[in-house]
Amino acid sequence: MNDARNESVGSVDPILLAQIIDEHVADIIVRLNDEDVETASAVLSHLPLERAIEVFDRPELSRAGELLMSLPEGLAGRILKGMSADRAADTLRQLDGADRTALLTRVDFETAQSLKLLLSYPEGAAGSLMTTEFVSVPSTFTVAQTLQHIREVEHTRETVYAIHVLDPHTRELVRVVTLRQLITGEPEQSILDVGPEREPIWVAPDTDREEVVTCPPPVPRSL
After folding, report:
1. 162 SS3 class
2. CA angle 107-83-108, nearest 5°?
3. Which residue in 8, 30, 180, 198 has a CA-CA distance of 20 to 30 Å to 53?
């Protein structure tokens, strides 16, 4: 993978870059929000790729869609692919159809399909808020198998703090196990035996966000 700094959009004030490059991401965003798009995009193109992704992943960054479009195609694609799915979808919603389509052509097919799915739900609906980057395992897994799976996929997942346990045949959600519960289990223990049995909470993808936040907590089937 080429270094993002090799695809800069233009010159950047070296003093400004020196001041920004080592700052905390929140401080970088404050500085970039105060700059015009041309200056901000030039700074972003000089940041290491992982730091640029971190900046775009924060909702505090204003004009994220416009900034992404102002970057070289290859760099914009790598940043979009590296962003969390829900934040990437929010950024794409800031753009018109043509620009959105152009950005989606700069990522791989799997990433593009995942983002198109999120974009298909109305803004403010549960589907538009969800992420497709979660950890799931079949209910036949042991604790050891689940931990090994997390090690293999954690770099491609937005969160690993909740493990979604699925029926191996229907792929329906049967249990949610926290990472804390998982690491306190014995290696040979079934993933189903790690946490208390609770009915999973679910909502339809088109449920309004206001309804989502008022969902009742799960009731344990057994303790």
Report:
1. strand
2. 15
3. 180
Query: Rounded distance, CA 50 to CA 10, Å?
Result: 20
Mean pLDDT by 10 residues, the chain (223 residues): 46 79 91 93 92 94 96 95 89 93 94 89 69 84 94 76 90 90 93 82 71 57 35
Cα–Cα distances in angstroms (integers) from residue 57 to residues 79, 90, 201, in the given order = 9, 10, 27
Count CB neighbours of 115 within 10 A. 24
The token pair that represents 36 in the structure block = 């015009």
* Phi, psi of 162, rounded to the nearest 5 degrees: -130, 130
E-strand spans in the chain? Answer: 135-138, 162-166, 173-178
Closest CA to 131 of 111, 105, 158, 112: 158
Say what the pTM is. Answer: 0.63
User: Residue 108 phi/psi, 5° resolution?
Assistant: -70, 165
Cα of 89 vs its chain's centroid, Å: 9
